[in-house]
């Protein structure tokens, strides 16, 4: 079957679907499924806009609300994960996944589904070490800390995914797995994005949690977005035993939405021709959710997942074939995900603006039904209970005093934090003085796709063995084996100017820069300046 993969669409659904229609007219190609790798921006109304961690000037309604209201319907089944520019209050209603509009499905904090026999998994958000070991405690109305921490990846989601044993065909993450840039055309990447060099050479670019999942799951395909550049890599995994067959992962990162033509690509995926056209639950994933339900945490307290270190009575939460069979029996062997989309908030009305509506914490009926069916904890219901008891809000007020100016509590991380650039794991997360946003979100316009359909297979020609530690030398000599990738023309965006050649926009404060302004990384400044230049062209 044909699968379209899109990068950050930033709410421009009309333009994304128009691009697919353009491909169909030009090349007679239409996908069976569309995957979006985060920054989807399922914004229903003005209150949702206020729950996005972006500068106010980039809070645009875009076009999702038309699909939410029923005015329009997605012309192709669309499955997406969350990024770091989302209406977090909306996605939070569906922690286990669900429909945000007819024919548009969100995978949840983490999730696995099936379509035509193809197993698709994903994890939402981006990695930030100081929030990684916390529970999902945030709820609207958010403050300047929780509006960001709401989309930070948590260790419990990674732990759940690591319990999977059956093969994964496709996996999505918003930020890149750390070290993946060593398995593709690194030279070309740094030519396009020269301000990545320091983090690439220090091996701090990307998510260590995603790398851990990549090493464990070894999916056939891994798709990401976030860094607004197209990049392909091919990773040959080491077998864990003599009996295990060799596996490899084709990695592809997509550019942001229009007018960048590299934001969307169509690939051919082997599927089960006897399978139906409905999106389905994954029985093993449901069984894992049931097995790990006791680990659900809705507090800010940092904690580690169970491991075989002598401190936990149980550390293996993978499921047996019998447990999977029980799930199938619960569902009467009908895995079809019910089309039970429900409106849970008023839809934006251009003729009646509601600029001062406050976001509220909502329990979505889809989540209530899902949890009741499988005996799972409704995370939002648990948060509501904690709020009523005063524990969540009280704990937060105490901890807030201990946080630094970026909202980062000094906490130990299970990942190596001896590099000063660790915070750059979230490369586009820009801390602003007043706006509280992360990065520039420029509005997009339709840009036609290339005259020829993209050839996905041509992007993967360099094979490497992935070490268990995922730690790779930054020796540039590794690029010499990437000649075929470079010749294949993985992407041809306009070459980035060096940082010194770009006029950097002053974000605020006085000339001395000491008016409480939070530090912005050099690479983020370059991205920010580049975005503003794009808008003026």
From TrEMBL:
Region (Disordered): 386-519
Compositional bias (Polar residues): 414-426
Record keyword Repeat present: no
Pfam families in the cross-refs: DBR1, Metallophos
UniProtKB keywords: Hydrolase, Iron, Manganese, Metal-binding, mRNA processing, Nucleus, Zinc
Biased composition (Basic and acidic residues): 386-395, 484-504
Domain Lariat debranching enzyme C-terminal: 235-380
Compositionally biased spans, kind Acidic residues: 430-441
Main location: nucleus
GO molecular function list: metal ion binding; RNA lariat debranching enzyme activity
A single cellular component GO annotation: nucleus
Keyword Thylakoid: no
Named cofactor requirement(s): Fe(2+); Zn(2+); Mn(2+)
Matching InterPro entries: Calcineurin-like_PHP, DBR1_C, Dbr1_N, Metallo-depent_PP-like
Localization annotation: Nucleus
Membrane-spanning ranges: none
Gene3D superfamilies reported for this sequence: 3.60.21.10
GO biological process terms on file: mRNA splicing, via spliceosome
Family: Belongs to the lariat debranching enzyme family.
The name this protein goes by in its record: DBR1 enzyme
Organism of origin: Rhynochetos jubatus
